[in-house]
Amino acid sequence: MTTEQTTRGPACPLSAATPSDTTPYAHYARMDELLALQHPLSSARTEPGFIIMSQVKELLFKLLHTEFTAARDQLAHDLLDDALWTLRRAARVQQVLLVSWETFSVLSPVEFAEFRDVLGSASGFQSAGYRRLEFLLGNKNAAMAAPHRNTAGHDAVVGQLYEPSLYDAALALLTRRGLLAPDDSAHRDVTRPYRAGAEVEEAWRSVYRDPGRHRDLHLLAEALTDTADHFARWRYTHLVTVQRMLGDKPGTGGTEGVAWLARISEHRFFPELWSVRSTL
To answer: What is the DSSP letter of 57?
Structure first.
């Protein structure tokens, strides 16, 4: 018996606490509540699918936040092997997230137009879950918390702004390994983007030039690049999907639509892991 089991005591069979009007499975995962959260506002046959897949993406954002937070904390405690395993799981979640765009891409412009008006000012740009992921990975911009002001998700978004990012943890590990000179990170404003510069790129260059000596750091570098790669593909697929449904029309919620998506699709998380490739 583990210490955790000893502290918590023996597990109580779920069936003993299951209400009579549901099954243990549905009660455990709160399936009845989950399946009751779709409320289409039009008669369009494609709107239920749009709502469901939007909800699926938000659940995947939440799962990725859990995994990336775990990886960050594991790096902070020098548990690099554990962090690599966590990032391996996260990569599979990112693959599912990427595939989720396929269900949107088969909506014809006419089908989307049948229910687009009922979206009103609603836009994926307002996703607190996605904004927390951006901040967690290191793409911090305090202005991006503004759309969440006076919402239930505002505190979580702002709170993420004040937490170290996954890239912060990776660079701190490079510092502890002697590959990156210490800076004033102990007093650095964590609401600003991660530490950047030529010295960061040089640290990663040292890892790539001698992967045998820095085997675990080399694996970390590639795992982080995989993470950034998946996000880049997700953004680009988002762009193409919107182009296919809307063309150059403005996005929902007053966003610029394709023009804005095209700009953000050029962003890369952990930029020194990309720029160093030109120097090897």
So the answer is: H
Alpha-carbon distance 268 to 272, whole Å?
9
Q: Which residue has the tokens 């998506």?
A: 261
Residue 95 has what DSSP assignment? H
**Residues 90/227, Cβ–Cβ less than 8 Å:** yes
Residue listed under structure tokens 């209400």 = 19
For residue 53, which amino acid is it? M
Per-10-residue mean pLDDT for the chain, 280 residues long?
48 69 92 96 96 96 98 98 98 97 92 91 86 95 88 92 96 96 74 84 97 97 98 93 83 67 88 95
Q: Which amino acid is at 183?
A: D
Q: DSSP states of 105-172 as a string?
A: HT--HHHHHHHHGGGTT--GGG-HHHHHHHHHHT---GGGGGGGTTSTTHHHHHHHHTSPPHHHHHHH
Other C-beta atoms within 10 Å of 55: how many? 13
- pTM to 2 decimals? 0.89
CA-based torsion, 126, 127, 128, 134: positive or negative:
negative
